[in-house]
């Protein structure tokens, strides 16, 4: 088999791996590049492989950095099946149309305000493109084998989010496993990733390859922030990914409120996508740890905000409240309007609860930026910034290494991807020092023969 790295090589976004073998050409993941401008511009280039030559796309999960380029691929001529788990399909039906809507909305807003360098500003793809992509989805259950030409493909749970999977591809000579994003052993919502066995070639993520998650209790940290900010009359802003992180925070807030650990202030979930994702959780009870009582608590922990008009009214409120809105790295979405409204006031707080990729507003603010550019203008940010690492849906380097100990003997080849350069290199060294594995960090566009 021949492997080409078309994304997530030297960066934590844009996952795309072209695998050729058994007379077939398949793409494992089809993600958007996010963060740094030089990465985002790749989304606008011609597709890195002729979409018409692909036999199929296989998705590890639904997050946009793994699935968000699909509508563009379809727009450029891809007509094959998109294979994924049922959970991934159901979430993609939420995430892809929303992504297209936001791009359409951002282009219209840029044209209206005149802050884009392009005349006119255009979306990367449209809602119609997203719908065309979704029409190609086909589902496969965990452990069920599908055949694409001479390739056999099987998925196993990765513990990262609903529907997330490690993808195992075999031909008559060898196999290769793509981990996708790997969850944690003690995640609040999801079961741990299933151990891997008999892996000859491995493509492994390294998002947190250079750090450990804090051993402190994230629920206690969350309660401390809420009490402190509400006590001074402020607003807690939480940019959160719509699937997984939002539900996790809502459950914790519900439990803290029931225990009297936080004041009974209004909580608003300002994310139609996160609201819709609640229903997907209910429809896939076998894929998470939540009891029916947990699901009910999560559903009723916040007032749901769907319309733009309702969202705008929140910015006029003067009383303490908790606002959850997307996107998680503040690359777009409704959180930006809240940040413009409440970011300049030092009574308020911005709570960072997930990974912040290089080049995003989230990383800039996490690093202490005093202002950020939003909708063409610089906004001063005087609100307190707080990071809670324990809420991450990614395993850290120690958790990844422990998970990989089940693989014996060592894989013939190991490729470290889906991490910023420092994180990937650190994880490469951890694999060598802890497991005795020699790994490489592929470059964007690099080819590798696997046997």
Describe the protein's architecture and organization:
Helix content is 31%, strand content 20%. It has 14 helices and 21 strands. The protein has helices at residues 37-40, 64-67, 70-75, 86-113, 127-134, 218-231, 245-258, 272-283, 292-299, 308-314, 335-342, 361-366, 397-404, 421-435, and strands at 2-5, 16-21, 24-30, 56-58, 82-84, 137-139, 146-148, 151-157, 165-170, 175-178, 201-205, 235-239, 267-270, 303-304, 321-325, 349-352, 371-374, 377-380, 384-387, 413-417, 447-449. It has 2 domains: 2-211 and 393-449, Metallo-beta-lactamase, Chain A (4-Layer Sandwich); 218-391, Rossmann fold, CATH 3.40.50.10890. The mean pLDDT is 94. Helix 4 packs antiparallel against helix 8 (272-283). It has 451 residues and is α/β, with parallel strands linked by helices. The strands form 4 sheets. A 7-stranded mixed sheet has the order 6-5-4-3-2-1-21. A 6-stranded mixed sheet has the order 7-8-9-10-11-20, covered by helices on one side. Strands 14-13-15-12-16-19 form a 6-stranded parallel sheet, with helices on both faces.
Condensed summary:
This protein has helices spanning 37-40, 64-67, 70-75, 86-113, 127-134, 218-231, 245-258, 272-283, 292-299, 308-314, 335-342, 361-366, 397-404, 421-435, and strands at residues 2-5, 16-21, 24-30, 56-58, 82-84, 137-139, 146-148, 151-157, 165-170, 175-178, 201-205, 235-239, 267-270, 303-304, 321-325, 349-352, 371-374, 377-380, 384-387, 413-417, 447-449.
């Amino acid at each position: 088999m021949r492997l080409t790295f078309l994304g997530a090589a030297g960066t934590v976004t844009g996952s795309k791996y072209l695998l050729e073998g058994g007379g077939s050409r398949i793409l494992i993941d089809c993600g958007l590049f996010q963060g740094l401008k030089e990465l985002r511009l790749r989304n606008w280039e011609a597709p890195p492989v002729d979409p018409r030559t692909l036999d199929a796309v296989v998705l590890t999960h639904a997050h946009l950095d793994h699935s968000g380029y699909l509508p563009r691929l379809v727009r450029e001529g891809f007509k094959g099946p998109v294979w994924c788990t049922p959970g991934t399909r159901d979430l993609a039906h939420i995430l892809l149309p929303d992504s297209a809507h936001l791009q359409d909305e951002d282009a219209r807003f840029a044209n209206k305000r005149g802050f884009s360098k392009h005349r006119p500003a255009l979306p990367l793809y449209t809602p119609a493109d997203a719908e065309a992509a979704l029409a190609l989805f086909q589902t496969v259950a965990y452990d069920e084998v599908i055949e694409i030409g001479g390739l056999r493909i099987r998925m196993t749970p990765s513990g990262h989010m609903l529907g997330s999977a490690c993808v195992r591809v075999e031909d008559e000579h060898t196999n290769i496993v793509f981990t996708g994003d790997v969850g944690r052993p003690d995640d609040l919502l999801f079961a741990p990733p299933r151990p891997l066995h008999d892996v000859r070639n491995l493509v492994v993520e390294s998002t947190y390859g250079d750090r450990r998650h804090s051993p402190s209790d994230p629920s206690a940290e969350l309660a401390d922030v809420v009490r402190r900010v509400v006590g001074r009359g402020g607003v807690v802003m939480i940019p959160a990914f719509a699937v997984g992180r939002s539900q996790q925070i809502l459950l914790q807030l519900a439990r803290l409120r029931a225990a009297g650990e936080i004041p009974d202030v209004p909580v608003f979930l300002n994310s139609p996508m996160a609201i819709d994702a609640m229903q997907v959780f209910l429809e896939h009870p076998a894929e998470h740890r939540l009891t029916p009582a947990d699901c009910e608590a999560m559903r009723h922990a916040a007032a749901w905000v769907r319309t733009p008009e309702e969202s705008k009214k929140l910015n006029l409120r003067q009383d303490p409240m908790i606002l959850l809105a997307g996107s998680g790295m503040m690359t777009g979405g409704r959180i930006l309007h809240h940040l413009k409204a409440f970011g300049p006031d030092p009574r308020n707080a911005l709570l960072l609860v997930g990974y912040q990729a290089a080049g995003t507003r989230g990383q800039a603010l996490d690093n202490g930026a005093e202002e950020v550019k939003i909708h063409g203008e610089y906004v001063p940010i005087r609100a307190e910034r707080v990071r809670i690492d324990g809420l991450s849906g990614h395993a850290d380097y120690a958790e990844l290494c422990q998970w990989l100990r089940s693989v014996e003997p060592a894989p013939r080849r190991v490729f470290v991807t889906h991490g910023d350069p420092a994180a990937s290199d650190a994880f490469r060294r951890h694999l060598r020092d802890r497991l005795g594995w020699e790994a490489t960090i592929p470059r964007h566009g690099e080819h590798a023969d696997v046997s």
